[in-house]
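Self-study notes.
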Amino acid sequence: MTNGHLDIIGRASRLYDEVVAAVLINPRKAGLFTVDERIELLEEVTASYGNVRVDTFSGLLVDYCKANDIPVVVKGLRAVSDFDYELQQAQMNHGLAGVETLFMATNPLFSFLSSSLIKEVAKYGGDVSAHVPEAVRRRLVDRLDTQ
């Protein structure tokens, strides 16, 4: 979770009565943190938003949305390259289940951030404190120190 993710969640929380930050369970992807750890971190950094709920899902996002009566997916866009991919997903999601997608332009302060870039910088001892919530920075540094 970067400050870019948190910015989008915070802005969405001002637009909607409830925001669900959903963590994908993808057994084919080995992340730095387990799903449970990601949930814990997400809950911690979104605790100040009274209307953000953290959940998990596997499979198709639209199936999760349909099962939970979620009509809109909010996506942050950093660059034109994000738009090309996200537009295809949005059109597929709408075609499959009528789920709408709201694109939010990322705050320019965070437009270059990606989780993989943050992990790489932290792995080599770089300071990522300006780019991730403090709880994430601590856990990231601790995890990389043990590897």
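Second protein, same conventions, sequence then structure:
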Amino acid sequence: MDVRTLLLQQWASCLDKEDWFPPLEKVLENITLEQAIWKPVEGAHSIWELVCHLLFFEKRILLRFLGETANEPKAENNDATYRLPTGAFQNWKETKQEYFSVHRELEKILAKSDLEDLYRPIPDDNPLVLELKSLAMHDAYHIGQIVFLSKMQGAWPGKRSF
């Protein structure tokens, strides 16, 4: 198996293909605004904050790879990457859709780019193949947190099929 095939499988597992853990599209499918902003304790992150965090890093890598560094998201520190837009339900839906769109755009680039391009260093980062490997692991970690938050709220089914 080549690196592209392996990464495409990992990348799809994070978004829309069931594997050892549920993909984020499925996890977020029926999450309401109230569930998205809920926190179990002060200082914990909400589901929406976790999705904003994932979006921040994926969007940053996408725009750096495309050479659009002037448009990349900025944050003064890691805590700022969890920052929410305004709390309207429409914005929750838009955050999810933007994450799905950015994730799919990175998948298209991975699928269609020459291997040389995938191994080209990204400004201020590693080559795309290494960044996507790290992002897939990062996504899987936070998807687990999102599932746990969903379970705590009773939003995750007691039994589900794979």
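Instructor comment on the second fold: The chain is about 60% helix and 0% strand.
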